[in-house]
Amino acid sequence: MTMGLLLDFFLVILALAAGWWTIGAKDSFGAAVAFVAYGLVLALIWVRIAAPDVALTEAAIGAGLTGGMLIGASTRLESAKQATRAGGVTRRLAIALSALVAAALALAVLGLPHPPPSLAAAAMAALPPTGLGNPVTGVLLAYRAVDTLLEKVVLILALLGTWSLAPDRLWGGRPGRKERRNAASPLTLLGQVLPPIGIVIGLHILWVGANEPGGAFQGGTILAAMWMLAVMAGLVDVPAISRTWLRLLVVAGPGLFLIVGLAGFVVAGGFLAYPPGFAKPLILLVEVVLTLSVAAILLLLLAGPPEREPPR
Amino acid sequence: MNAEVLFGLAGAVLAGLGLYGLVADPAPLRKLLAFNLLGGGVFLVFGVVARRGAAAGLGGDPVPQALVITGLVVAFAATALAVALLRLLFERTGQTLLDTAAQERTSPDQADG
Protein backbone atom coordinates (compact mmCIF):
# COMPACT_ATOMS: atom_id res chain seq x y z
CA MET A 1 0.00 0.00 0.00
CA THR A 2 1.36 3.41 -0.90
CA MET A 3 1.74 6.24 1.61
CA GLY A 4 -0.94 8.23 -0.18
CA LEU A 5 -3.53 5.50 0.13
CA LEU A 6 -2.59 5.01 3.79
CA LEU A 7 -3.27 8.72 4.41
CA ASP A 8 -6.58 8.39 2.55
CA PHE A 9 -7.59 5.46 4.76
CA PHE A 10 -6.71 7.48 7.83
CA LEU A 11 -8.80 10.45 6.62
CA VAL A 12 -11.76 8.18 5.85
CA ILE A 13 -11.58 6.63 9.34
CA LEU A 14 -11.44 10.14 10.87
CA ALA A 15 -14.43 11.29 8.79
CA LEU A 16 -16.48 8.22 9.72
CA ALA A 17 -15.55 8.62 13.40
CA ALA A 18 -16.51 12.31 13.40
CA GLY A 19 -19.74 11.46 11.55
CA TRP A 20 -20.53 8.70 14.04
CA TRP A 21 -19.89 11.08 16.93
CA THR A 22 -22.13 13.74 15.33
CA ILE A 23 -25.01 11.27 15.26
CA GLY A 24 -24.25 9.47 18.51
CA ALA A 25 -23.14 12.27 20.87
CA LYS A 26 -25.28 12.57 24.01
CA ASP A 27 -25.77 16.34 23.89
CA SER A 28 -26.28 18.54 20.86
CA PHE A 29 -23.28 20.72 21.75
CA GLY A 30 -20.98 17.70 21.46
CA ALA A 31 -22.67 16.74 18.21
CA ALA A 32 -22.15 20.24 16.76
CA VAL A 33 -18.47 20.22 17.74
CA ALA A 34 -18.10 16.80 16.12
CA PHE A 35 -19.74 18.23 13.01
CA VAL A 36 -17.07 20.95 12.78
CA ALA A 37 -14.39 18.25 13.00
CA TYR A 38 -16.22 16.29 10.31
CA GLY A 39 -16.27 19.35 8.02
CA LEU A 40 -12.55 19.96 8.47
CA VAL A 41 -11.69 16.31 7.71
CA LEU A 42 -13.91 16.50 4.62
CA ALA A 43 -11.97 19.61 3.53
CA LEU A 44 -8.75 17.57 3.73
CA ILE A 45 -10.38 14.80 1.68
CA TRP A 46 -11.36 17.41 -0.94
CA VAL A 47 -7.70 18.39 -1.19
CA ARG A 48 -6.83 14.72 -1.68
CA ILE A 49 -9.24 14.42 -4.62
CA ALA A 50 -7.73 17.47 -6.32
CA ALA A 51 -10.58 19.88 -5.58
CA PRO A 52 -8.91 22.74 -3.64
CA ASP A 53 -11.74 25.18 -4.46
CA VAL A 54 -14.27 22.83 -2.86
CA ALA A 55 -11.89 22.25 0.06
CA LEU A 56 -11.78 26.01 0.75
CA THR A 57 -15.57 26.25 0.56
CA GLU A 58 -16.08 23.18 2.76
CA ALA A 59 -13.72 24.53 5.42
CA ALA A 60 -15.28 28.00 5.33
CA ILE A 61 -18.96 27.13 4.91
CA GLY A 62 -19.37 23.49 5.91
CA ALA A 63 -17.13 23.48 8.96
CA GLY A 64 -16.87 27.19 9.81
CA LEU A 65 -20.21 28.89 9.23
CA THR A 66 -22.63 25.94 9.46
CA GLY A 67 -20.70 24.42 12.37
CA GLY A 68 -20.42 27.73 14.21
CA MET A 69 -24.09 28.46 13.70
CA LEU A 70 -25.13 25.04 14.98
CA ILE A 71 -22.82 25.31 18.00
CA GLY A 72 -24.46 28.67 18.73
CA ALA A 73 -27.91 27.14 18.35
CA SER A 74 -27.03 24.21 20.61
CA THR A 75 -25.95 26.54 23.43
CA ARG A 76 -29.06 28.69 23.03
CA LEU A 77 -31.33 25.67 23.14
CA GLU A 78 -29.40 24.06 25.97
CA SER A 79 -32.21 24.40 28.45
CA ALA A 80 -34.62 22.62 26.15
CA LYS A 81 -35.59 19.15 27.23
CA GLN A 82 -33.53 16.36 25.76
CA ALA A 83 -35.67 14.34 23.45
CA THR A 84 -35.84 10.62 23.98
CA ARG A 85 -34.43 8.63 21.10
CA ALA A 86 -36.77 6.64 18.95
CA GLY A 87 -36.74 3.07 20.15
CA GLY A 88 -37.76 -0.38 19.01
CA VAL A 89 -39.38 -0.68 15.63
CA THR A 90 -38.73 2.89 14.44
CA ARG A 91 -35.05 2.55 15.20
CA ARG A 92 -34.74 -0.78 13.42
CA LEU A 93 -36.61 0.57 10.41
CA ALA A 94 -34.33 3.62 10.34
CA ILE A 95 -31.25 1.39 10.46
CA ALA A 96 -32.61 -0.79 7.64
CA LEU A 97 -33.53 2.23 5.51
CA SER A 98 -30.18 3.99 5.91
CA ALA A 99 -28.23 0.75 5.34
CA LEU A 100 -30.23 0.22 2.15
CA VAL A 101 -29.51 3.76 0.91
CA ALA A 102 -25.81 3.46 1.79
CA ALA A 103 -25.61 0.09 0.00
CA ALA A 104 -27.34 1.49 -3.10
CA LEU A 105 -24.95 4.48 -3.16
CA ALA A 106 -21.97 2.14 -2.68
CA LEU A 107 -23.16 -0.01 -5.58
CA ALA A 108 -23.53 3.13 -7.70
CA VAL A 109 -19.96 4.14 -6.78
CA LEU A 110 -18.61 0.68 -7.68
CA GLY A 111 -20.58 0.66 -10.92
CA LEU A 112 -19.50 4.08 -12.24
CA PRO A 113 -18.95 3.89 -16.01
CA HIS A 114 -15.59 3.25 -17.66
CA PRO A 115 -14.19 5.36 -19.20
CA PRO A 116 -15.62 8.08 -16.94
CA PRO A 117 -17.54 10.86 -18.71
CA SER A 118 -15.88 14.24 -18.28
CA LEU A 119 -16.53 17.84 -19.19
CA ALA A 120 -12.97 18.82 -18.21
CA ALA A 121 -11.79 19.10 -21.82
CA ALA A 122 -14.82 21.20 -22.78
CA ALA A 123 -14.33 23.41 -19.73
CA MET A 124 -10.66 23.96 -20.55
CA ALA A 125 -11.44 24.67 -24.22
CA ALA A 126 -13.93 27.38 -23.24
CA LEU A 127 -11.57 28.97 -20.70
CA PRO A 128 -9.19 31.10 -22.86
CA PRO A 129 -11.93 33.51 -24.15
CA THR A 130 -12.82 34.37 -20.53
CA GLY A 131 -9.23 35.25 -19.64
CA LEU A 132 -9.51 33.20 -16.44
CA GLY A 133 -7.00 30.60 -15.31
CA ASN A 134 -9.05 28.70 -12.72
CA PRO A 135 -11.51 26.38 -14.51
CA VAL A 136 -13.78 26.18 -11.45
CA THR A 137 -14.18 29.98 -11.41
CA GLY A 138 -14.77 29.72 -15.16
CA VAL A 139 -17.61 27.26 -14.61
CA LEU A 140 -19.07 29.31 -11.74
CA LEU A 141 -18.98 32.71 -13.44
CA ALA A 142 -18.98 32.03 -17.18
CA TYR A 143 -20.70 28.99 -18.55
CA ARG A 144 -22.74 27.96 -15.53
CA ALA A 145 -23.16 31.52 -14.28
CA VAL A 146 -26.91 31.08 -14.02
CA ASP A 147 -26.35 28.54 -11.17
CA THR A 148 -24.23 31.06 -9.30
CA LEU A 149 -26.77 33.83 -9.85
CA LEU A 150 -29.60 31.64 -8.55
CA GLU A 151 -27.45 30.57 -5.59
CA LYS A 152 -27.19 34.23 -4.54
CA VAL A 153 -30.95 34.57 -4.94
CA VAL A 154 -31.37 31.55 -2.63
CA LEU A 155 -29.15 33.30 -0.07
CA ILE A 156 -31.29 36.45 -0.24
CA LEU A 157 -34.48 34.39 0.07
CA ALA A 158 -33.07 32.63 3.15
CA LEU A 159 -32.24 36.05 4.62
CA LEU A 160 -35.75 37.35 3.91
CA GLY A 161 -37.17 34.20 5.49
CA THR A 162 -35.05 34.73 8.59
CA TRP A 163 -36.00 38.41 8.88
CA SER A 164 -39.68 37.64 8.43
CA LEU A 165 -39.61 35.62 11.66
CA ALA A 166 -39.30 38.86 13.64
CA PRO A 167 -42.43 40.12 15.38
CA ASP A 168 -43.95 43.26 13.79
CA ARG A 169 -42.72 45.69 16.44
CA LEU A 170 -39.09 44.60 15.91
CA TRP A 171 -39.21 44.76 12.11
CA GLY A 172 -36.35 46.91 10.90
CA GLY A 173 -34.45 46.59 14.18
CA ARG A 174 -31.01 45.23 14.94
CA PRO A 175 -30.44 41.47 15.04
CA GLY A 176 -29.11 39.81 18.17
CA ARG A 177 -28.27 41.42 21.46
CA LYS A 178 -25.66 44.10 21.90
CA GLU A 179 -22.41 42.49 22.95
CA ARG A 180 -20.74 44.21 25.91
CA ARG A 181 -17.31 45.52 25.17
CA ASN A 182 -14.68 44.36 27.63
CA ALA A 183 -11.26 45.92 27.09
CA ALA A 184 -9.54 43.22 29.17
CA SER A 185 -11.05 40.37 27.16
CA PRO A 186 -8.83 38.46 24.73
CA LEU A 187 -11.75 38.62 22.31
CA THR A 188 -11.38 42.40 22.13
CA LEU A 189 -7.70 42.03 21.26
CA LEU A 190 -8.54 39.44 18.61
CA GLY A 191 -11.33 41.65 17.29
CA GLN A 192 -8.86 44.48 16.87
CA VAL A 193 -5.83 42.56 15.58
CA LEU A 194 -7.34 39.94 13.30
CA PRO A 195 -9.75 41.89 11.04
CA PRO A 196 -7.06 43.94 9.24
CA ILE A 197 -5.19 40.71 8.44
CA GLY A 198 -8.39 38.81 7.65
CA ILE A 199 -9.64 41.52 5.30
CA VAL A 200 -6.39 41.37 3.33
CA ILE A 201 -6.55 37.55 3.19
CA GLY A 202 -10.22 37.65 2.13
CA LEU A 203 -9.50 40.11 -0.69
CA HIS A 204 -6.44 38.09 -1.70
CA ILE A 205 -8.53 34.91 -1.98
CA LEU A 206 -11.06 36.84 -4.06
CA TRP A 207 -8.35 38.24 -6.33
CA VAL A 208 -6.41 35.01 -6.91
CA GLY A 209 -9.70 33.17 -7.51
CA ALA A 210 -9.47 34.10 -11.19
CA ASN A 211 -6.40 31.91 -11.65
CA GLU A 212 -5.87 29.87 -8.49
CA PRO A 213 -8.16 28.16 -5.99
CA GLY A 214 -10.35 30.79 -4.31
CA GLY A 215 -13.08 33.13 -5.40
CA ALA A 216 -15.91 35.46 -4.42
CA PHE A 217 -17.67 33.17 -2.02
CA GLN A 218 -14.61 31.99 -0.12
CA GLY A 219 -13.31 35.57 0.14
CA GLY A 220 -16.71 36.86 1.22
CA THR A 221 -16.91 34.21 3.94
CA ILE A 222 -13.62 35.37 5.43
CA LEU A 223 -14.79 39.00 5.36
CA ALA A 224 -18.03 37.97 7.09
CA ALA A 225 -16.05 36.06 9.72
CA MET A 226 -13.94 39.17 10.45
CA TRP A 227 -17.06 41.32 10.71
CA MET A 228 -18.61 38.73 13.05
CA LEU A 229 -15.48 38.70 15.20
CA ALA A 230 -15.68 42.47 15.64
CA VAL A 231 -19.40 42.13 16.47
CA MET A 232 -18.74 39.39 19.05
CA ALA A 233 -16.05 41.52 20.69
CA GLY A 234 -18.57 44.38 20.96
CA LEU A 235 -16.41 46.68 18.82
CA VAL A 236 -19.13 47.22 16.24
CA ASP A 237 -22.84 46.46 16.30
CA VAL A 238 -24.85 44.59 13.69
CA PRO A 239 -26.60 47.28 11.62
CA ALA A 240 -30.37 47.63 11.85
CA ILE A 241 -31.97 45.77 8.95
CA SER A 242 -33.96 48.85 7.92
CA ARG A 243 -30.76 50.68 6.89
CA THR A 244 -30.88 51.50 3.18
CA TRP A 245 -27.13 51.06 2.71
CA LEU A 246 -27.31 47.60 4.20
CA ARG A 247 -30.16 46.52 1.94
CA LEU A 248 -28.34 47.97 -1.07
CA LEU A 249 -25.20 46.08 -0.05
CA VAL A 250 -27.19 42.84 0.17
CA VAL A 251 -28.68 43.14 -3.31
CA ALA A 252 -25.77 44.94 -5.04
CA GLY A 253 -23.85 41.80 -6.02
CA PRO A 254 -26.74 39.71 -7.33
CA GLY A 255 -28.28 42.87 -8.86
CA LEU A 256 -25.12 43.77 -10.77
CA PHE A 257 -24.76 40.14 -11.85
CA LEU A 258 -28.32 40.21 -13.18
CA ILE A 259 -27.75 43.52 -15.02
CA VAL A 260 -24.56 42.16 -16.62
CA GLY A 261 -26.48 39.00 -17.49
CA LEU A 262 -29.32 40.92 -19.12
CA ALA A 263 -26.89 43.21 -20.93
CA GLY A 264 -25.49 40.01 -22.44
CA PHE A 265 -28.64 39.78 -24.56
CA VAL A 266 -27.79 43.08 -26.23
CA VAL A 267 -23.99 43.00 -26.53
CA ALA A 268 -23.14 39.29 -26.63
CA GLY A 269 -26.24 37.53 -27.90
CA GLY A 270 -27.41 35.68 -24.80
CA PHE A 271 -28.27 35.80 -21.10
CA LEU A 272 -25.10 35.94 -19.00
CA ALA A 273 -22.91 35.95 -22.13
CA TYR A 274 -19.91 38.26 -21.96
CA PRO A 275 -18.77 40.36 -24.95
CA PRO A 276 -15.43 39.11 -26.36
CA GLY A 277 -12.45 40.83 -24.76
CA PHE A 278 -14.46 42.16 -21.82
CA ALA A 279 -15.12 38.85 -20.11
CA LYS A 280 -12.40 39.05 -17.48
CA PRO A 281 -12.95 42.67 -16.38
CA LEU A 282 -16.71 42.06 -16.19
CA ILE A 283 -16.26 38.83 -14.22
CA LEU A 284 -13.86 40.54 -11.81
CA LEU A 285 -16.23 43.47 -11.32
CA VAL A 286 -19.13 41.11 -10.62
CA GLU A 287 -16.95 39.06 -8.26
CA VAL A 288 -15.78 42.09 -6.24
CA VAL A 289 -19.33 43.34 -5.68
CA LEU A 290 -20.56 39.78 -5.03
CA THR A 291 -17.88 39.33 -2.37
CA LEU A 292 -19.13 42.38 -0.46
CA SER A 293 -22.76 41.27 -0.78
CA VAL A 294 -21.90 37.73 0.30
CA ALA A 295 -20.07 39.08 3.37
CA ALA A 296 -23.13 41.15 4.36
CA ILE A 297 -25.62 38.35 3.69
CA LEU A 298 -23.61 35.78 5.65
CA LEU A 299 -23.19 38.12 8.62
CA LEU A 300 -26.92 38.85 8.66
CA LEU A 301 -27.83 35.15 8.32
CA LEU A 302 -25.59 34.36 11.29
CA ALA A 303 -27.02 37.26 13.30
CA GLY A 304 -30.58 36.00 12.83
CA PRO A 305 -33.89 37.90 12.92
CA PRO A 306 -34.06 41.38 14.50
CA GLU A 307 -34.36 41.26 18.28
CA ARG A 308 -34.13 44.96 19.16
CA GLU A 309 -36.49 47.87 18.52
CA PRO A 310 -35.83 49.67 15.24
CA PRO A 311 -34.21 53.12 15.42
CA ARG A 312 -36.67 56.00 15.36
CA MET B 1 -8.82 -0.53 -4.14
CA ASN B 2 -7.88 2.98 -5.23
CA ALA B 3 -8.49 6.30 -3.54
CA GLU B 4 -11.58 7.14 -5.63
CA VAL B 5 -13.39 3.94 -4.68
CA LEU B 6 -12.36 4.38 -1.03
CA PHE B 7 -13.72 7.95 -0.83
CA GLY B 8 -16.81 6.99 -2.81
CA LEU B 9 -17.64 4.20 -0.36
CA ALA B 10 -16.92 6.53 2.56
CA GLY B 11 -19.38 9.03 1.04
CA ALA B 12 -22.00 6.28 0.77
CA VAL B 13 -21.54 5.27 4.43
CA LEU B 14 -21.65 8.91 5.59
CA ALA B 15 -24.88 9.49 3.64
CA GLY B 16 -26.39 6.40 5.30
CA LEU B 17 -25.22 7.56 8.72
CA GLY B 18 -26.75 11.00 8.17
CA LEU B 19 -30.03 9.49 6.98
CA TYR B 20 -30.20 7.35 10.11
CA GLY B 21 -29.77 10.41 12.34
CA LEU B 22 -32.32 12.34 10.31
CA VAL B 23 -34.96 9.63 10.74
CA ALA B 24 -34.19 8.29 14.22
CA ASP B 25 -33.37 11.43 16.22
CA PRO B 26 -36.48 13.40 17.21
CA ALA B 27 -34.63 16.64 18.11
CA PRO B 28 -34.73 19.10 15.16
CA LEU B 29 -31.23 20.43 15.86
CA ARG B 30 -29.85 16.90 15.66
CA LYS B 31 -31.86 16.35 12.50
CA LEU B 32 -30.22 19.47 11.04
CA LEU B 33 -26.77 18.18 11.95
CA ALA B 34 -27.61 14.78 10.47
CA PHE B 35 -28.96 16.40 7.31
CA ASN B 36 -25.72 18.31 6.82
CA LEU B 37 -23.78 15.10 7.46
CA LEU B 38 -25.85 13.36 4.81
CA GLY B 39 -25.18 16.25 2.43
CA GLY B 40 -21.43 15.97 3.06
CA GLY B 41 -21.55 12.28 2.09
CA VAL B 42 -23.50 12.97 -1.11
CA PHE B 43 -21.13 15.80 -2.07
CA LEU B 44 -18.20 13.45 -1.51
CA VAL B 45 -19.69 10.86 -3.90
CA PHE B 46 -20.10 13.67 -6.42
CA GLY B 47 -16.51 14.72 -5.76
CA VAL B 48 -15.38 11.21 -6.64
CA VAL B 49 -17.28 11.51 -9.93
CA ALA B 50 -15.40 14.78 -10.51
CA ARG B 51 -12.08 13.14 -9.65
CA ARG B 52 -12.68 10.25 -12.06
CA GLY B 53 -13.34 12.81 -14.79
CA ALA B 54 -9.77 14.11 -14.54
CA ALA B 55 -8.71 15.11 -18.06
CA ALA B 56 -7.17 17.92 -20.07
CA GLY B 57 -4.40 18.37 -17.50
CA LEU B 58 -6.84 18.95 -14.62
CA GLY B 59 -6.98 16.87 -11.43
CA GLY B 60 -10.75 16.64 -11.70
CA ASP B 61 -13.76 17.66 -13.76
CA PRO B 62 -14.42 21.31 -12.80
CA VAL B 63 -18.16 21.16 -13.60
CA PRO B 64 -19.18 18.81 -10.76
CA GLN B 65 -16.74 20.65 -8.47
CA ALA B 66 -18.48 23.96 -9.19
CA LEU B 67 -21.86 22.30 -8.59
CA VAL B 68 -20.67 21.04 -5.19
CA ILE B 69 -19.60 24.60 -4.25
CA THR B 70 -23.07 25.86 -5.19
CA GLY B 71 -24.60 22.96 -3.25
CA LEU B 72 -22.61 23.81 -0.11
CA VAL B 73 -23.81 27.41 -0.24
CA VAL B 74 -27.45 26.43 -0.72
CA ALA B 75 -27.19 23.89 2.12
CA PHE B 76 -25.84 26.67 4.36
CA ALA B 77 -28.71 29.01 3.41
CA ALA B 78 -31.30 26.31 4.19
CA THR B 79 -29.59 25.48 7.49
CA ALA B 80 -29.52 29.15 8.51
CA LEU B 81 -33.27 29.49 7.87
CA ALA B 82 -33.95 26.25 9.77
CA VAL B 83 -31.90 27.45 12.76
CA ALA B 84 -33.86 30.73 12.82
CA LEU B 85 -37.15 28.79 12.77
CA LEU B 86 -35.92 26.51 15.52
CA ARG B 87 -34.91 29.45 17.71
CA LEU B 88 -38.35 30.98 17.22
CA LEU B 89 -40.00 27.67 18.16
CA PHE B 90 -37.89 27.54 21.32
CA GLU B 91 -38.68 31.16 22.26
CA ARG B 92 -42.41 30.67 21.74
CA THR B 93 -42.85 27.27 23.38
CA GLY B 94 -39.71 26.57 25.42
CA GLN B 95 -39.55 23.35 23.46
CA THR B 96 -37.50 22.18 20.54
CA LEU B 97 -39.57 19.14 19.68
CA LEU B 98 -41.71 18.88 16.60
CA ASP B 99 -44.02 16.33 18.21
CA THR B 100 -46.98 18.57 19.07
CA ALA B 101 -48.64 15.87 21.19
CA ALA B 102 -45.54 15.69 23.39
CA GLN B 103 -45.50 19.50 23.66
CA GLU B 104 -49.09 19.68 24.80
CA ARG B 105 -48.42 17.05 27.44
CA THR B 106 -45.50 19.00 28.91
CA SER B 107 -46.70 22.61 28.51
CA PRO B 108 -50.51 22.79 28.24
CA ASP B 109 -50.48 26.52 29.13
CA GLN B 110 -48.41 27.43 26.09
CA ALA B 111 -50.02 25.09 23.62
CA ASP B 112 -51.49 28.03 21.70
CA GLY B 113 -48.16 29.95 21.70
Secondary structure elements and their pairing?
The complex is a heterodimer of chains A (312) and B (113).
Chain A: H1 3-24, H2 28-48, H3 52-76, H4 88-110, H5 120-125, H6 135-143, H7 145-163, H8 186-208, H9 216-232, H10 244-267, H11 279-303
Chain B: H1 3-24, H2 28-52, H3 62-93, H4 100-106
Keyphrases for this structure?
heterodimer; A: mainly alpha; globular; B: 113 residues; mainly alpha; Helix Hairpins; 4 helices; disordered C terminus
Summed up:
Chain A is mainly alpha-helical and 312 residues long.
What does this structure look like?
The complex is a heterodimer of chains A (312) and B (113). With 312 residues, chain A is mainly α. Chain A has two domains: 1-75; 131-312, no CATH class. Chain A has eleven helices and no strands. In chain A, α6 (135-143) packs across α7 (145-163), α7 packs parallel to α11 and α9 (216-232) packs parallel to α11. Chain B has a single domain, classed as Helix Hairpins (Orthogonal Bundle). By secondary structure, chain B is an all-alpha fold. Classes of the chains: A mainly alpha (312), B mainly alpha (113). Chains A and B meet through α1, α2, α3, α4 and α5 of A and α1, α2 and α3 of B.
- Classification by helices and strands of chain A: mainly alpha
CATH architecture of chain B: Orthogonal Bundle
Determine the fraction of residues in helical runs of chain A and give it as a percent range.
Answer: 55-70%
Round the mean pLDDT of chain B to the nearest integer and report it: 83
How big a fraction of the residues of chain B is strand? under 5%
Q: Give the termini distance of chain A in whole angstroms.
A: 69 Å
Radius of gyration of chain B: 19 Å
**Large-scale geometry of chain A:** globular
CATH class of chain B: Mainly Alpha
Low-confidence region ranges of chain B: 107-113
Note the overall shape of chain B. Answer: elongated
Count, helices of chain A? 11
Number of domains of chain B: 1
